[in-house]
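Quick one:
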Amino acid sequence: MNISAIYREISLYSCVPNKLMKGGLEKLKLKFRVFLICLQLLAIMITTAIPVGYAAHTQPVDPYRPQFHFTPIQNWINDPNGLVYFKGEYHLFYQYNPYGDKWGNMSWGHAVSKDLVHWKHLPVALQPDRLGMIFSGTAVVDERNTSGLFKDKPGGLVVIYTSAGETQQQSIAYSTDQGRTWTKYEGNPVLPNPGIKDFRDPKVFWHDKTNKWIMALVAGDRVMFYGSPNLKSWTYLSEFGAKEGDHSGVWEVPDLFELPVDGDPARTKWVLKVDINPGEQGLGSRGQYFIGHFDGTHFVNDHPPDKVLWVDYGKDFYASLSWSNLPGRLVWIAWMNNWQYAEKTPTSPWRGAMSIPRDVALRTVPPEGITLIQTPIHELMQLRTDAKKWSKPMTISPGFNPLKGLQDDTFELIAEFELGTATEFGFKVRKGEHEETIVGYDTKSSELVVNRVNSGNTQFSPLFPWEFRAPMRHVRNRVKLHLFVDRSSVEVFGNDGERIITSLIFPSPESRGIEIYVKNGNVKLVKMEMYHLGNK
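Output:
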């Protein structure tokens, strides 16, 4: 019996009225049955309080289960939700179907972590109710109890989410026990639908300068902003985007935050991130961002309206969301999938994974100017084992592979190259007799390249085999590539996070080869280091 079935059975038995039981024996049998079910539930909860990658060790028949990316124990997941740091714990909620491996029955799954790397699975936090399914949203720490929901306590966690029934409306729930149980506010919805079809995905934060809560949510082809003193009553403020950015699909999952530029706290900019679905016919669902100014009422874009800035140049980084209440840094995570083929990916009994968490910053990158930078969180370093380092520069020509003989399917690789005469160079990872994923740099077009056309199982969707390209200039004739390769994904950070390509892959377990490749000339490998990423 799986965890979902156990919850359903407990609910079924707990709802049987006493008057329908015809005697003490029947009551005793029923109580004993509920006791056995609870023991099963306890056993599952104990066995799931272990690192994310556990299943690949206990289920060798599952070749695609990631070792250092978050996945559900079973069933479908999509958007991350309610990310919040509270009393030493990182909370990760996510869109979850407790009853199947395709989209439906949208609830909020829940996991917690002390380090953003090892996750403990918890029971489903929010399930559908009279207002509909539980769509995406966020969480905040109401430390001053502005909501009045915590009575004799100083404050606690509040989640703000979309109730998706006949219409999409915004609701809240609160927890007095560090997120272990949740009570839905009896006055839901707190923000009824004003007559807009797509009206969802609230991102909420406290704005000090105006002394109020701000909500950014998407409304079809734009972002709408609301303000509130107490998380329960909301006033319309403004809207942004009807004629700005990319509109090749409906807008979804906004995020809004302020960051220092080049690490200078006296010089800050606001970033508004918005995702697009279904997006361009080729790349499908993806994310864009705007850089500008937010005064607590309006967001003003610094760029021309038709300027599009992409969060990621692959197909598999969607619905990114940042952790709230996290002092000193901004970290986000995304659903590592694409709506073009999300329900067809060849995984079981789970479907859907999260990206690695990433630190987010703003850096001035000539000639583009201020650019969103994403880098792997330092906490991932604890997974490093079996270090290999090449510190002496060497010239790489076609046929010379200093990685010859090395094999791995979960590793981190960092390399710096100095351009030579080669027209393209880089790495081939998860390489087998007929499979490989190419990660390289095209010197003629100045582009970061990831090619998964021959990466393994690509037959489940004609839109999966693809070559991705991201514009990326060399810096003083040098290029940096930073790769994270897991059982079913490749995440590439170019030039210290200036350009990112995130890509799912589904190679055979035997395809574990790694090599350096060069085309039409030579390139200098300045330095390189490689680590196996275990699951400590």
